[in-house]
What does this fold into?
Amino acid sequence: MRIIIDDVAVLSRFAADLIAEQVSYRPDCTIGLATGSSPVPIYQELAARVASGELDLSRVRFFALDEYAGLGASHPMSYRYFLDEHVVGPCRLDPAQLRVLNGRAEDLDHECRDYEAAITAAGGIDLQILGIGHNGHIGFNEPTSSFGSRTRVVALTHQTVDANARFFDDDPEDVPLLALSQGIGTILEAGALVLIATGGGKAPAIRSAIEGELTSSVPASALQLHPQATFLVDEYAGAMLARSDFYRRERQVIARYGRTSPRRR
Ligand code: GLP
It folds into this structure.
């Protein structure tokens, strides 16, 4: 389902509702976490609900989508650090509840295989949060990544290095050129996918992902293959969608019939 919500705060509450529904359905479920600025308001909303006692995440297991190669947990630009700051601390999790790929593992290929095994051992990911890169990437699956790809070591495009330089004091030289990422095939095995995109910079990628051809050149277009994928976009990220009237109507009609959220597994 494609959902356009004009207000980012409302959008984030909607995403938090989907997560809370998943957790109330199965308190020991498994949730996949994305990094980047887009999901931050969702994590803030989750933290507020935990603080108020409305939401209990103490039995949930979390897996991160990706990590930079070479950056350890104590590096402020590592995704482990980011998720500790934005999710583990504020949501009062035990750090052991979150597994992140170890970017400093001696054998990165082994780390990736081990990560896949850990996801399988956890029973798979029930709900995966995703952002989207300007070039349509999901996780660190850059354009032309196979739709069947698994967790692996990947090279980053110039575009991604430049886009992420803002987190490295605007110096692209400091951005790692290699990363570890769940594959598109891995992501597609999650029970439900929730992709969040805000701001006009994401509008071309969102248009291609939702309405464009199914192509590895736009990794997020793979979500068209998933039966429980929800795109949550604000009016700016959704500005180039040709069928936005239908998506708004779709949401109203579905709500009228009381079917507001993805089916849980
Ligand atoms: C990074 C992450 C992606 C994320 C993307 C977009 O490249 N690896 O998982 O979706 O950034 O980030 P933002 O939400 O900050 O635009």
